[in-house]
Amino acid sequence: MVTQYGIKYAVHLITTHFGDLVAKVCECLLRRGPLTLQALVKFTELSSSQVKNSLLVLIQHNCVQAFLPEPGDHGDADKLNTQYIVLFDNIIHRWRFPKFLNIVSEKLDEQCVKLLEGLLQHGRLTLKQMSDRDRARLDQKEGEDVILDATRANLIKLLNARFVERCPAAEPVLAKPTEEESSARKRGPKSAKILEENETLEHRVMDAAAPSEALRFLLVTQTESAADGGLDESNTSSLKAGVKRKSDALESETESGAADEQVLLWRANFEEFMRRLRHEACIVNLRARLDDGAVIVLRAMLEATRSAEKKVKTEHSVPLSLNSIYEEVIKSVEGRNITFDRVRASLVQLSCPPFVKAINESYSIDFKKIIELAQSDEVESVVLKRYGSDACKMFRLLSNTGRFVETDKIADSTLIEKKETPMVLYKLWKDDYLHMEKLQLTGTRQSHFLLWKVKKNTIREHVLDEMFHAALNLNLRLAYEVEQEKELLSLSQDNRDKRLRKVKLLSQSQMKLDDAIMIFHDF
Questions:
Q1: Which domain holds residue 241?
Q2: What would the pLDDT profile of 105-136 be if each residue is shown by its tens digit?
Q3: Are residues 29 and 65 in the same domain?
Q4: Cβ partners under 8 Å of residue 233, min gap 6
């Protein structure tokens, strides 16, 4: 969902990082969809060179993808022009870079963190550029080859963990939509057609641009392949699985000259970071409902199935047998104290409600159920803080019921005064938290009733838009406070400490708000 305040928030982030000129081009793409260079010049009223340079910045930082429409879409191939589509999610991810770095710091060493930090800062880099940065940062006198080898070793660690990937193709040719995608667009309601088409188009563009899975996380040096026709293990990032497939892909790539490590561009793999953050959010949101053993089992299942997930928003994990789950549980220090029967009991606990589904003696995680529960908790928390406990009771009742309920029945079910109930419901309806319909009954005595319902999809979009609005305001306030830091030297020690505490509190609030945004938008 890309809401109105979501667009404003994205434009603010681009303005903060790259200035007004680049932000103007980005906003045009956000509001109008994919455009050619000529169309961008027309709509932004900027010069061709200004638009071109802005696009180069956005592409460098993975915020825009160029593509060529499929020739059949235009009839005249001579009129085929490059189009540019904005990647909204990648823009929002820019505020999550500290979270990404924290994930790497927990898994790998400091040198890997620094390497990823350079990629996040510059968007895309070759191995040579990474090596040059390391040499300048470390200020070491070792030879260039020594630094290059060390940088290559760190890059391989990041590739093996899937924290870094090859950059997509510069201008992929877009294939025609599949019959399934075309029929889905026809079935969609009119109000959602534009958004649905843009999402489908972005998905098709990124699929066309993505490198093959065999090459996506593969680093190959310029060294010749082994004499026996296989690949030297020191020349690749990972050869544990799919060796022949990677070998065939490598031979094809080498023939085209694309395997030169001086040319290949690398970037942070946002999908992997979001997948890990999603898994952690699942654990955090279920921790209060489960005992420690069930949490350990859930974490083990997430770890075992992560590599098999093809997309971040997958609804179910791949199934695992009980034996496979136990093997993964005892790999962790805290899991070694858990018995086989305890794992079985934890899976029973996870099945009620069905956070884990059991099918034919195999178990899979129901991500959709967990995320929907987290979303419901977040919305109820907002309603409680803003409207009070009575409003929260009514909202929870309607949310769980999932259908229209008459005013008096709501009052009876929640044990709230019938005089107070319509006023509270009206407040929620006025602020778009409830849907209301009037039911008119005719007969000997004409009467009407008010019916109330929670439309979950609508309320999630509304809450997300409010969150983007709050994030925008919070960012603006934090930027103002940071700008005032130059005045700290003229303040007393007490006032200086108060201002620093305020900045720290704003930063913490910003991160917590972003956690909530991810639950509604990214997960």
A1: 108-168+211-247+259-268
A2: 999 999 999 999 999 999 999 999 999 888 88
A3: yes
A4: 239
